[in-house]
Each structure stands twice: as C-alpha cells, then as structure tokens.
Q: What sequence folds into this?
C-alpha cells in the first residue's frame, strides 16, 4: 500500500512539474498586450487552435460556384416548373417537392437528382422519380417509377448541359482573343 501511494505521489509531482515547465510564458516584452493579438500570434506560431476554424474549413475538395457547373444549371433549368424542397450544391443533390398539375389532385410526382460527377456524362447523375396516388380517403401509395421519366429527364439535362458547356467555351475563347488583341 505504501509503495503504491509513494508511486502516485511521484507520478503526480512529475506530471505537474512537466505541466508547469511547459507553461513558461517567455519574454513578456515579446507578448502583445491585446488578447486578440496574442491569440493570432499563438495561432501563427502553431501553439493554439480555434474550434470554429475546423468547422468552417471546406472538406472533401473545393467546389466552384454553382452557376459555373453546367450540369447543375441544366438540372435546375429543367426542373424550374417544380417547387424545390432541397438544392444542395456541395452535397450534390436536388430534391423537388411533391408536384401535381391542376387537372389531377390525386396524383403527384417528386424527383431527386444526385450528382456523382461534375462531368457531362450519362453516369454523372442519378435520377429517381416517385409517384404518389391518393384516393379520396387520403390513403396514399408512393411508388418508384424512375425508369419511366428519369431517362427522359437525364437526356434533357445532359443536352442542356452540353449546350451550356459549348456557350462557356465560346465565351472563354472570345475573352482570350480580346485579351490577346489588347496586349498587342
């Protein structure tokens, strides 16, 4: 018992002395008096961290502004007649709200588009289409009918995205040509 108590005391003394030694503030003349300046200096020297910095930093790569992605723009333009429930560019997903035309209130459609790539290819997006049929007693049945409408939507989105890409390329070429002419 006495040996264990003695080992605990030695361990506590050793640990606390290490902590006290590492807390040496250094030369007081080199430490800024303003708290914000001290924090900034410590961060620059690698002696501290900010909790919110780790949250604010982007993870998973860099994303361009959404309007520069032709596939994203084409998808939004294709679905512009439907109300959107979710459009998250960094998450790569667009989900519409339930939509029905004025002729049939018992049927509604909901579409989700997942972006798997920024390239304009047929496997770059995955489209799911859900139909909701409701009877008069409010009994609704939701079915996945992705095969019927999704291929038409995918074709329209890819065609529109290809047109947007061609327009961007021609604008870029025109800007380069003008810039080169101005340099001469």
A:
């Amino acid at each position: 018992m006495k040996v264990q108590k003695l080992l605990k005391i030695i361990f506590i003394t050793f640990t606390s002395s290490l902590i006290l030694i590492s807390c040496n503030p250094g030369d007081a003349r080199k430490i800024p008096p303003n708290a914000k300046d001290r924090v900034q200096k410590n961060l620059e020297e690698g002696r501290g961290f900010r909790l919110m910095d780790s949250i604010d930093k982007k993870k998973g790569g860099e994303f361009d502004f959404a309007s520069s992605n032709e596939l994203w723009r084409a998808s939004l333009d294709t679905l512009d007649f439907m109300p959107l429930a979710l459009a998250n560019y960094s998450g790569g997903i667009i989900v519409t709200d339930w939509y029905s035309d004025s002729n049939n209130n018992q049927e509604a459609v909901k579409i989700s588009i997942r972006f798997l790539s920024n390239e304009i290819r047929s496997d770059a997006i995955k489209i799911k289409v859900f139909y909701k049929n409701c009877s008069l007693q409010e009994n609704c049945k939701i079915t996945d009918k992705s095969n019927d409408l999704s291929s038409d939507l995918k074709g329209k989105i890819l065609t529109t995205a290809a047109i947007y890409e061609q327009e961007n390329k021609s604008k870029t070429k025109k800007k380069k040509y003008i810039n080169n002419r101005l340099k001469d």
User: Anything to note?
Assistant: Residues 55 and 90 are 15 Å apart (CA to CA). The beta strands are 84-88, 93-96, 107-115, 125-134, 140-144. The domain at 66-183 is CATH 3.30.530 (Alpha-D-Glucose-1,6-Bisphosphate; Chain A, domain 4). The helical segments are 2-22, 35-44, 51-56, 70-78, 146-183.
